[in-house]
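Hey, I was hoping to borrow your eyes for a little while. A protein chain has come my way and I'm curious about its shape. Take your time with it, there's no hurry, and the full record follows here:
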Amino acid sequence: MDNQNFLYLSLGAYIGVSMRLEIVSIVGNFLRDQTIPIDIFDNFIGSFVIGFYNDRYKKRDFSSHLAISTGFCGCLTTFSSWIIGIIDLVNSEQWFNCIIHLFIGTTVAYSGFKLGQNAETEFKFPFHQKLIYLAFLKLIIFQVLFQRWSMIVTALLSPFGAILRCYLSKLNHKDFPFGTLMCNLFAVWIAEALLISKIHLDDDSNKIINSVLKGFCGSLSTVSTWIKEICTMQSIELRFSYYWISLFLSVYIGLVIFQNLS
């Protein structure tokens, strides 16, 4: 990856995580029901955007593709947070709520992607690379003015997760996205281990862990790319296999980690 691609991916990741944190902060003030994923809106928006752009920049403008698809959408959406919510419901034996949580998370992301695909055929947004710089500058000025220091620290960790996900995506096979699967699984397992370790740590250490959870793990995992891959697979059998393998392994190993470390 050259310096330009590295920069655009990092900027897109920073913007995506910052937007996710803002949305979750707002939604968290109103949403108290555990059956509804806390990241429902950012997963919808990220899936919509990745469906709307539909790799239109991948060949003629790879830097923009990295910024929008891998950076912004990949970091705005998060697989790890969604699955951690399911693991919590399983641990408390809320089986019905777990099914609802799973159904809503899947349906919202799928609907967002399909709506984005349909919108792409109707509208052609004249995207320009300078918009990435402009969005980043406005965002960082806003964060500094309102002293969102924890958000800045968290967002600064996002490029590490996004870059690792970008490199692991090279393991994706044309018939099965092994790289994305590894990213989502590793992010969930790391997040579950960190959440358990928080119990034994002080407040300052917990703040650091929260930043790693939301910044690094949230950016390493992705719903937008995951749902895009499911929707664009040629084989229906592979679609179902990829979907259930992702869910089963992330939840099962997450529960094993919880049982062994708690």
Summary: Residues 3-261 form one domain.
